[in-house]
Amino acid sequence: MKKIFSRPRSMTDKPMHFCPGCTHGVIQRLIAEVIDDLGIQEDTIAIGPVGCAVFCYDYWDVDFQQASHGRAPAVATGVKRVHPDKVVFSLQGDGDIAAIGTTEIIHAAARGEKITCLFVNNSIYGMTGGQMAPTTVVGQKSTTTPRGRDRDLAGYPVKMTEMLSVLDGVVYAARVSVHNPANVLKAKKAIKKAFEVQLRGEGFSLVEILSTCPTNWGLSPLDAVRWLEKNMVPYFKLGEYKVPEEKKHEEIAVAEVAG
Questions:
Q1: Element (H, E) at 194
Q2: In the prediction, which pLDDT does 252 show?
Q3: C-beta of residue 184 within 8 angstroms of C-beta of residue 30
Q4: Can you name the residues that pair with 176 across neighbouring β-strands?
């Protein structure tokens, strides 16, 4: 019988702790697949967050460093500068990267640190009980916004990818999702591009990945996927917000030829 599915080499066989229907596991597998595809398992150092992905050191068979809440970009900066030949990346949630860690991510990006940050956005504080996060959409209910997020009281959700993409140190910035098979494939391509930017030594790269949180959203796994598509995608628009300069030139050239 032809084998069509196998566990990535850079992923351990330890069962994951994520809630049923949570797409964190899908994202972590995609990262492992990219590491395998690029052949960088022995040269990769992952920086772990505080949040739902805090136990990712159990799931990847790569070197690992845990960071304090929000400080992963700062830790990644130190590790990369000491080991410039290694591939260094962080995995962070919205509370980690867009709240307590906003300073670290903005200045790491502005400096053009040659690291990759992977940002899982599920629009809520997942680990601590479902409170409103910086990315909670207007009208979304949480334990701290039982009537829904009010823009007059709490403002608007933070669009991290758009904010960071305008910084000169950022080479690649994209937002993807994993709510259906087609978008899972696009997410993997974006993660791979982000790692390739780092391998070429070009600068900072970021991929934001929209993810579900059925438990704290109070939805079934299937309904959570539908909720993400209906409520998150229209606000957090998917796509590449910044690409390497050489790719821009190629696209212009192709457009000119086509015209």
A1: helix 181-199
A2: 46
A3: yes
A4: 209
Q: Tell me, what's the pLDDT at 258?
A: 55
* Distance of alpha carbon 160 from alpha carbon 175, whole angstroms: 10
Report the alpha-carbon distance of residue 176 to residue 206 in Å, rounded: 11
pLDDT in the model for residue 54: 86
| Nearest to 204, CA basis, from 130, 105, 56, 92 | 105
Nearest residue to 140 (alpha-carbon basis) of 125, 127, 128:
125
Ordered domains of the chain (ranges, CATH): 24-258 (3.40.50.970)
Low-confidence residues of the chain, pLDDT below 70? 246-259
Distances (CA, A) of 20 to 49, 54, 121, 139, 155: 21, 17, 17, 25, 31
Q: Within 10 A of 218 (CB to CB), how many other CB atoms are there?
A: 13
Rounded Cα–Cα distance for residues 182 and 164 (Å): 26
Q: Compute the chain's Rg from CA coordinates.
A: 18
Count the Cβ atoms, other than its own, within 10 Å of residue 127.
15
Residue 31 tokens, joined: 């990262």
- pTM for this one? 0.92
Collapsed DSSP state (helix, strand, coil) of residue 145: coil
Phi, psi at residue 19, to the nearest 5°? -65, 155
Q: How far apart are CA 246 and CA 2, in angstroms?
A: 40
Q: Could you tell me if 161 and 134 are in contact, meaning their C-beta atoms sit under 8 angstroms apart?
A: no
| Enclosing H/E stretch for 162 | helix 160-165
> Quick one: how far is CA 192 from the chain centroid?
12
Q: Which residue has the tokens 């709490």?
A: 154
